[in-house]
Write a structure and sequence with these properties.
Radius of gyration: 12 Å
Shape: elongated
Number of strands: 0
Low-confidence stretches: none
Largest sheet: none
Number of domains: 1
Keywords: Membrane, Transmembrane, Transmembrane helix
Helix content: over 70%
Order of helices and strands: HH
Distance between the termini: 19 Å
Structural class: mainly alpha
């Protein structure tokens, strides 16, 4: 359930975060940071689980 919630939150922020929060991101750096945080969170989850 938590993984699904995190995935939905990531997709929403990645896709529509600039509209909702109003940030200006012409270079895509915020989206790159969101993707990196999500990927590192997945990696950390696998490390602690296994």
């Amino acid at each position: 359930m938590i993984v699904g919630l995190a995935s939905v939150l990531f997709i929403a922020l990645f896709g529509w975060g600039n509209i909702y929060f109003g940030w200006s991101d012409p270079d895509g750096k915020v989206q790159a940071a969101l993707f990196a945080a999500f990927a590192l969170g997945i990696l950390a989850g696998y490390k602690t689980r296994g």
